[in-house]
Amino acid sequence: MWLSVPANTDFSIHNLPYGIFHTGDGQPRAGIAIGDHIIDLAAAAESGLFGKARFFKKIFSQPTLNEFIGLGKPVAQRIRKKVHAWLQQPERPANADRLLADRRAATMLMPIQVPNYTDFYSSIEHATNVGKMFRPDNPLLPNWRWLPVGYHGRASSIVASGTPVRRPWGQIVPKGQETPVYAPSQQLDFELEMAFVIGKNSALGTPISVEQADEYIFGLVLFNDWSARDIQRWEYVPLGPFLGKNFGSSISPWIVPIEALKPFRVKGPRQTPAPLEYLEQKGKQQYDIQLEVAVAAGGAPETVISRSNTRYLYWSMAQQLAHHTVNGCNVQVGDLMASGTISGPVPGSYGSLLELTWGGKEPLSLPGGITRTFLQDGDRLVMRAAAEKDGIRVGFGEVSGVVLEAL
Ligand code: MN
Prior knowledge:
Blueprint lengths: L17 E5 L6 E6 L2 E4 H6 L6 H8 L5 H5 L2 H15 L8 H4 E3 L4 E3 L7 E4 L3 H11 L15 E3 L5 E3 L4 E2 L2 E4 L8 E4 L3 E2 L2 E7 L14 H4 E8 L2 E2 H7 L13 E3 L4 E2 L7 E2 L19 E2 L2 E7 L6 E7 L7 H9 L10 E3 L14 H4 L7 E3 L3 E3 L7 E10 L2 E13 L3
Parallel strand pairs: 6-22, 8-16, 9-26
Antiparallel strand pairs: 1-2, 1-5, 2-3, 3-4, 6-7, 10-11, 12-15, 13-14, 13-22, 14-16, 14-17, 18-19, 20-21, 20-25, 23-24, 25-26
Bound molecules: manganese (II) ion (MN).
The site of manganese (II) ion (MN) has 6 residues, from loops.
């Protein structure tokens, strides 16, 4: 490759993730990250790299990737091949300056317009931990091992990494009391999740099978499901999460194509009891992607507070999608399906403060004598993810956000 990239970059030639960026000119356009650069896909289209110059220039000058993704996987794979070949030339091509932007100077935007968002609950460690806190005798509810539990979330409040998150007000029942007060949340938390982006519409009334799922999964992003535990605790009975969740969720701005993650496919945990027929799966259905969460609290330097891995997830994306659509529910290009908090088997691998501090009872000790049970105003939370094997690294960059005081 004629372009040099940092040795440990998330955005190696094996990755080539898609995003929407601008460089201060206010012109959002599509790009592919490579090392510290972005390949401007609108400029690449204009220079004739993909053929049909006018058509692709228009596609890649849109403020979201939905139209491009909607063209289908064969088109995306052709674009990916062309970009790969362009990078693999022996000499720096004449159009290099026109096509490359400085990634560190670019502003990343929401890569997609999200029509629908679903959040699952697919980590058995997370479900068991939360269950233990609320129901010590009966942590895992009877349905959990039979179906990927989930709920329909709010798409309008999903934001790109870097967007600050405002501490929400809501109804909270103070400890030892029975009636709620209206107050800012005192238990603001994060949830470490991955989300997949739907790449193909399905027809209402037509389920997607486990075997067909890969056709419908375009790629993955990191997902932080900000959660106000005190609001959630009071409101969730009997219909589930609502205002404790829908004030904001953040995603990493680069969509890593599912094809780039093929080398990292692994077998998931053994499922017992055996799933019902429509959820049966074979082969490697999970991904070995390392995850970490860091917090910069009270102006102190960033500290890693959790390390987990997507391979711990009990239910696979294929099973989530098959279950989601088994009743005929349709999916749309750009829909986001989040995994649920990804906790591992040991305390240092838990994917939320609720678990890391065991319901706020065991505060985390951070450098500078700072302690945290839940997030404070001004805290900056960062999640990172990368898969690595045989010298190949495919990373997600990061999803970050600063907590703003309640208004
Ligand atoms: Mn969640």
